Structures are given as structure tokens and as C-alpha cells.
Amino acid sequence: MSPLELDFDSCYRAVSSRDARFDGRFYTAVTTTRIYCRPICPARTPSARNVRFYRHAASAEAAGFRPCKRCRPELSPGDPGWDVRGDLVGRALRLIDDGAADEQGVAGLAQRLHITERHLHRLFVTELGVGPLAVARTKRLLLAKQLLTETALPVTEVAFAAGFGSVRQFNATMRETYGFTPSELRATAGPRARNPEATKGTGAGGATLRLRLHRREPYDVDGVFAFLASRAIPGLEVADLTSYARAVPGGTITLTPRRDHIALDVSVADTRQLARVVARCRRLLDLDADPEAIAQALGPTSLGPLVAARPGLRVPGAFDGFELAVRAVVGQQISVAGARTLLGRIVARAAAPDGLFPTPARLLDTDLTGLGLTGRRIDTLKDLAARVAHGHIDLDGGQDPAEAVAELLEVRGIGPWTASYIALRALRDPDAWPTGDLVLNKRMAALGIPHDHIERWRPWRAYAALHLWSSS
């Protein structure tokens, strides 16, 4: 297979200078060693004649290259370009990260996107050089490699956590693709992976693991964690400037900022949930954004002073799309503190026994009267829950953002502001703009920014909104 069309000279310059801006955007494969690396690999830069560049790790692996043990491609941040495009391939990649291909197969993935399996395969081969099945397999292998390297989780558990159907399949796939078995990789890992005390059992029989979530720098840690802390729902989340914790399916997570990454402590009874947890934590913290591209677009505009004051500002996402939509509806025209109180009451009444935010079906069956919600607000929540439960609205990545917003606007009581806010945080649309937001209007007026400047901030209006909100 030929490498995908990438500008060779630009990529080689990035590799030669170990430019972190390109981490996750492409991978460098070396023909003499049959190894592929991140652009920031500290190893000696290979000769240009021995180098090939690939857009995705799966493309490099399909061409017969295996991941570098030194720079560890499994730690690369995601390519932010897919969020900007928001197209079918980008949405499919998000669903693969979320485990959709492992649970439903490629046919189920295509059905979720409302296209044929053949069309999905053709799009992937055009964009990435490999089909969705190869991408899903590489995701599984790289997660397994991280678990084998960073944790003491038994190899059997690693196999199932990474989405493999059996240990035999796991061993065979890793040997075929990487040239070594899981046990051989573990033997070369650091002391943490060899120390059984590094992974401790929980009371529910699960395991508490710590994984590193890498990010692009600069990263506005204080801004992200302050945003989440101010909106933490009582009974579901506990957050401050130094950590964020919440209930997730089958367990709990805690996110703690470190010098160059985010530490994820996850305790789940079923380790098969790990891939989904990792993907959703990355979106929650907006770890894959491109701060330089955003600063280059917004810096020369009327937002310049705000951008300079908050380098690396992020748009906090959502762990669950429906949960975020409920937050947006409850938060209409009331304070953040007031919304937290009402959401805490909803969780106290409607949450599942494991403390999770109520599913659409559970919210439909719950009596929401007497919680301080107006009758109209309750009707909006019920209508929203019904449409999500019946598959008319997909808030976790499968639906085109514009289509999802159009469907949201059909819900009684959801207007442009609410739909745009959901698009901004749940649908990860970097150009979403909360139309009619009073705080944004006041901040723009105070800074003397005319409303026609909003169009100048495309395609990063969501980040423009966060700059304005955080400046108040």
C-alpha cells in the first residue's frame, strides 16, 4: 500500500524539529526498522529516503509497520481536524473510539451513520488508506499496549478490556501485527506494569487502574477544571480546581491534572468499558484540540487580548450527550448554581441504583414534579428523552451536528440557544455559537465588539464563546 497523500517536506521538517503541533496528525514510518513513530519521537531523525508518512496509525500498521516502544504512538492525542470537518469519517472515528465497532461490528457502525457498509469502507479507504475494521483493530491493539505498559492488569483482563473476544485471538493478533506477544511486551515494560500492587482490586471485584491521557500544549488546566467544578451535579460529580470525579457505568473515574498529562484513575467492574471511558474523558477535557490553530484564527481579531491572556483555552465537552442536553434544558434562563441544585434533585430522584445520570428511558418513567421545575420545563425534558430514546436524536457522535441541531429545535421548549449549547459541548462542534446568550452579549458590549465580528471567528466560534464567558 502506498502512503497517503501528505506533504512530504512539511512532515519531514516537523519530524526533524520534533514539532509537537503535529503530534497525532500523522505518523512516521521507517522502512529500515519497520517501526512507526510520533513526530515527536526522541530517536535520531531517519534519512528522508527511508521515511514514509501516514495519516493514521492503522494505515502504518496495515503497511507492515509496528509502533515504537520509545515514543509510544498509543499516547498520541487525536487529530483535531476531524472535529472541524464533522463529516462522516470524523463521526465514524468518534464512534469507533467509543467502542461502537467492537460492540456492533462495522455493519452496526454504518447503520448508526445511516449509510451502507460498502460506502463507509470506501470513505475510509479514500481518507485513511484502510477500512474501519483495520482502524478498530489498531485502536484495540494500542489500548492493549498502553494497559500492558502502564498497569499490572493481568493479560487475560487486558485482552477483554481492549475489546478482543478471547486471549488466543489477542495473542495471535499482537504477534502477527507487532511481532511480539503480550507477555513479551509486559516483560520489557517498566516496574509499574510488573508490580501487582499497581492494580488493586475494588470492593465490587473490579480493578482500579491509572492511565495517562496526553494532551496538546498549551492546555488551560485551571480554566477547564474550574468550568467543570462550577457545574458539578451533587450526587453525580465531585470537582474542584485539582480534580474531577464522577460515576460512570459500572464504576467511577477521577481525573487529575499532571505536568504534561491528565491522570485517569478508573475503577470499573467490567474492564470492557475502558475504551469508552478513555474516549469520553478525552472529549470531556477537550484534550485533542489544536490550540495553535485556534489562537492563529482568533488572535488577530477583536478577541486578541483574551486569547493572549488564556493560552490553550478549551471547550469542556460532555461524558454523556443526553446528560448534557438535560443540563442545557434545566439551565435555561437561570443561574449556574440554580441549575446545579435542580439537576441534583433530578439525579436524587431518577438516578439508577449505581448513581448514574438517568437514561432517556428512565427519565421518561420518572415523576419530575415537586423538584422546582416548571411544568413546561418538565414537558421539554420528557419530549427530549422520548426523541433520544427512540433514536431520532443521536447526541453521542453518530449524527451530523447540523441535523442533530435541527432535530433538537423540533423539541418543545428548545430554542436556538439551547440547541447551540448542546452542539458546542455534546456534539463537539467547534463553530457552535450560543445565539442570544445574555452573558456573551454583555461581554461583547463591554469590550466594544460589534456583533458582526462573530462571523470573523469561524470556524472556532465555540472557543470564542468560551473566551468571552471566562473573561467575565
TrEMBL record:
SUPFAM superfamilies with a match to the protein in the record: Ada DNA repair protein, N-terminal domain (N-Ada 10), DNA-glycosylase, Homeodomain-like, TATA-box binding protein-like
Classification via CDD domains: ENDO3c
Reported cofactor(s): Zn(2+)
Cleaved signal peptide residues: none
InterPro entries with a match to the protein in the record: Ada-like_dom_sf (IPR035451), Ada_DNA_repair_Zn-bd (IPR004026), AlkA_N (IPR010316), AlkA_N_sf (IPR037046), Alkylbase_DNA_Glycosylase/TA (IPR051912), DNA_glycosylase (IPR011257), HhH-GPD_domain (IPR003265), HhH_base_excis_C (IPR023170)
Broad EC category: hydrolase
Region (Disordered): 186-206
Residue span(s) of domain HTH araC/xylS-type: 90-188
Enzyme Commission (EC) number: 3.2.2.21
GO BP of this protein: base-excision repair, AP site formation; DNA alkylation repair; methylation
Gene3D superfamilies assigned: DNA Methylphosphotriester Repair Domain, DNA-3-methyladenine glycosylase AlkA, N-terminal domain, Helix-hairpin-Helix base-excision DNA repair enzymes (C-terminal), Homeodomain-like, Hypothetical protein, domain 2
A molecular-function term among this protein's GO annotations: DNA-7-methylguanine glycosylase activity
UniProt-listed Pfam families: Ada_Zn_binding, AlkA_N, HTH_18
GO cellular component labels: cytoplasm; protein-DNA complex
Catalytic activity: Hydrolysis of alkylated DNA, releasing 3-methyladenine, 3-methylguanine, 7-methylguanine and 7-methyladenine
Keywords carried by this UniProt record: Activator, DNA damage, DNA repair, DNA-binding, Metal-binding, Methyltransferase, Transcription, Transcription regulation, Transferase, Zinc
Name of this protein: DNA-3-methyladenine glycosylase II
UniProt organism field: [Actinomadura] parvosata subsp. kistnae
Highest classification ranks of the organism: Bacteria, Bacillati, Actinomycetota, Actinomycetes, Streptosporangiales
